[in-house]
Amino acid sequence: MELIFEKSIPGRRGTALPRSDVPPASPLPEWLTRREAAPLPELSELDTVRHFTRLSRLNFSVDANFYPLGSCTMKYNPKAAEEAARLFAGSHPALPLLPGGERFAQGSLGVIHELSRLLAVITGMDEFCCHPLAGAHGELTGIMMIAAYHRSRGERRGIVVVPDSSHGTNPATAAMIGCRVVTVPTAPYGDMDLDEFRKAMSGEVAAVMMTCPNTLGLFNPHVAEICAVAHEHGALVYCDGANLNAVLGKVRPGDIGFDVMHLNLHKTFGTPHGGGGPGSGPVGVKQDLVPFLPSPRVTRRDDGSFALEEGGPASIGRIADFYGNFGVLVRALAYITMLGGEGLAEASERAVLNANYVRSRLMGHYDLSYGEGPCMHECVFSASRQAKNGVHALDIAKFLIDRGFHPPTIYFPLIVREALMIEPTETEGKETLDAFIDAMIEAAELAETNPAALLQAPRTMPVSRLDETRAAREINVCCPWGVEGEAS
Amino acid sequence: MLDVIGAAELEELFSAIPTGLRAAPLDIPGGMSEFEMLSRMGELAGRDNRELIRFVGAGRYDHIIPSVVEHLAGRSEFATCYTPYQPECSQGTLQALYEYQTAVCRLTGMDVTNASLYDGGTALAEAALMALRITGRNRIILDGCVSPFSREIVRTYLANLAAEATEIPPCNGVTDRAALLSRLDGSAAAVIVQNPNFFGTIDDFTDLAAQAHDCGALLIVSVYPISLGLLKSPGEMGADLAAADGQSLGNPLSFGGPSFGILAVRKEYIRNLPGRIVGETVDLEGRRGFVLTLQAREQHIRRHRATSNICSNQCLCALRGLIFLAALGREGFADLARLNRDKAEYAKGLLSRIRGVSLLNGESTFNEFTLALPVDSALVVEKLLSRGVAAGLPLGRYYGGMERCFTVTVTEKRTREEIDTLAANLEEALWS
């Protein structure tokens, strides 16, 4: 499809601006202004509408397709949460910064305060800060607080311990505060190897970062012991809450022994993923870490009104422009309000039921690498059996596209060869799961009978397989000026 | 389904969780229908005041949003997909992001950009971290005219690294070049400046770019995207990295988020750029298509050696930015910038003629300017708030010694009548 810049017709205009009711200003001196207007596309409103409507139709999406992308929790989110966010569209974040201005933002501040309280109830943590703008940003905030905690005790600890099944964001976060990463291997039963973990621990370790349940879709029965061992060494334990969707109302990280955690509101609490974001990554802490929370904090006064307070001397400071991805916070509060405590627990039950159903039906067709008992909200298969016939996880993924399913996450976790990571989520019905499972079985059978058929997929999309090597070698990430249409 | 699984009851599936760790039922009241929820949220939203006439900015701006932005970006094919890891079924998002990258490069005059970061402040912090990596040095020179919020974020990001930030206090709303240059030497990784700056002053940092480069340092310019309809771009100034907050491009205020962060750089630094990047390529039949590219920079491949830990970005907000720019177009976007300045100049003229009021930053401002009052500006702004006018942001909290100053923001949405109301109220608050 043509680029929007290629559709540009010189002189064409779209949206009209409000008419000016003031005299024109005297022009700025030339040395302060740009030489020529930025070459943006010139289109009518209809041109713009057609362009983006057509583009949108090239996408798979949760609203149109089953999207079992493991680790990403691509569930259907109620549309009412979108409506709720719109109610706050006009609230200016600087108002509560004006003297006497907090009274004009009581609704927004109230949303943040109430959501923070509910997240604490759900996770068993003591306090939440909703500023982090994504899960990885929550991790960064959390690990900065852990570093500040150790510093406040006169300790400098430079190591972060992670299991080899961890999300890439965990070690990347540790590196962003200058920590060295020590990786602990996973034992055959699918959890961090306890002996190796004990060997990795020392007084140098600032934090242990764990995803709970982990990225293999398993709940580590030794997690409380791991927390205790870490604490014996003076280290804190960080919970990557990306997989909380499996255990709402079943277990609370704060009760297990975790000191700090983040949540991915966009995964668990009602915000669609927007092609990559915005998300939201509130970070929760136990009492010992409250002084280190980012600035400013939303607090409740004795009279019930809400206030913004600058962080104290121990606070790690400001980590975002304002108060987080507020629109996502509103959606999360709307979602929790609609489901209630029982509804949240039921969501996790259905997510786990769906994942186990997929796992059980596919078990004979694909290899399971880790874990023998039931899985939590996702299951990880390996296409290594199929790979022997030259069919890789990637080929199976592309075949599923032709069947109208977004593929599972492939090649993650890194410790599973030819990984196919399936997270069906709670919002899918059995008939959708069955159709997907049938397609997966068909792929497994084709891998035996006609492997070539899989290597050609997808055939039904606007493009066939794309040359990623060429994209990385002949870098073109920005369309040059003067493309067709612009020149005419 | 349980039969297929071979479980007698649902709870068996949770058997891995030790009994001692099992949670009590969540202490959250029972659910609500969407109608009850919306009525409750509507009640909460009603506690935010929307009647105030607002002349506040501080990084988030009340601009027009063409209706097509919401309609198109709100399409669920864009809203309910995820990061385009599978390019064949994600060409809509990928092509839109490639177009977004192109639009950002054209606005900023830079060579390459990513598919968005979180917000303006964190984009600036990532720019600072990039400069440390590129130069191998450990000191960032931070102009005090940069937003105090952004500066605080940069300091937070540097706090755990062997790096320091040298802050240069502003001089009457303008970058103190003499002081800045006295701290610029071979130990500096980068100089960070902002245009227009926090006081609203417009500058041209071409000289600083040259001087930074002479010392082997980089110039990072933080910009306000709407101003780029009129002002010299970071690229034209010779900047190495440009950062911006994208909210003003088609995103609602929404109490500060979501917005999106822009980080655009010279092409030689592309491999140091954090975040997703979309690149053009071809499919098996030679047709044009788009993919996520240079992923070896990213955490899911490179783990602790990645350029950043960022995973989720603000894609949908960036898409809104692209649609906003397309809806206004080349001439419309330039007109919008002029309209902002026209309104602000009208307000500036009116307000600065009030007895006792003076302008901190004379001629060259865009849509914000800073006024000095004969009394504490916080008291005056508070008084005006109770009369229904949010007159601006008092600076005393952010700059010692500037208690009498406040910064006024005038976007295209403020009418002449509203500006006249502001002037009348300010005069009355001061003199009656």
Q: Short summary of the structure?
A:
The complex is a heterodimer of chains A (488) and B (432). Chain A is α/β, with parallel strands linked by helices and 488 residues long.
Notes on the structure:
The complex is a heterodimer of chains A (488) and B (432). Chain A has 2 domains: 80-337, Aspartate Aminotransferase, domain 2 (3-Layer(aba) Sandwich); 347-471, Aspartate Aminotransferase, domain 1. The longest helix of chain A has 37 residues, at 326-362. Chain A has 488 residues and is α/β, with parallel strands linked by helices. Chain A is globular. Chain A has helices at 45-56, 79-86, 106-123, 135-152, 169-176, 194-200, 223-232, 253-256, 265-268, 326-362, 384-387, 393-402, 430-449, 451-455, 468-473, and strands spanning 127-129, 159-163, 180-184, 205-211, 236-241, 260-263, 283-285, 297-300, 306-309, 367-368, 379-382, 409-410, 419-422. The mean pLDDT of chain A is 96. In chain A, the strands form 3 sheets. In chain A, strands 1-7-6-5-4-2-3 form a 7-stranded mixed sheet, with helices on both faces. Chain A has 15 helices and 13 strands. Chain B is α/β, with parallel strands linked by helices and 432 residues long. Chain B has 2 domains: 53-64 and 331-431, Aspartate Aminotransferase, domain 1 (Alpha-Beta Complex); 67-323, 3-Layer(aba) Sandwich (Aspartate Aminotransferase, domain 2). In chain B, 37% of the residues lie in helices and 15% in strands. Chain B has a 7-stranded mixed sheet with strand order 2-8-7-6-5-3-4, sandwiched between helices. A 4-stranded antiparallel sheet of chain B has the order 11-12-15-14, with helices on one face. In chain B, strand 6 (218-223), helix 10 (234-237) and strand 7 (241-245) form a beta-alpha-beta unit. In chain B, helix 5 (91-108) packs parallel to helix 12 (315-352). The mean pLDDT of chain B is 97. Classes of the chains: A alpha/beta (488), B alpha/beta (432). Chains A and B meet through helix 1, helix 2, helix 3, helix 4 and helix 5 of A and helix 1, helix 2, helix 3, helix 4 and helix 5 of B.
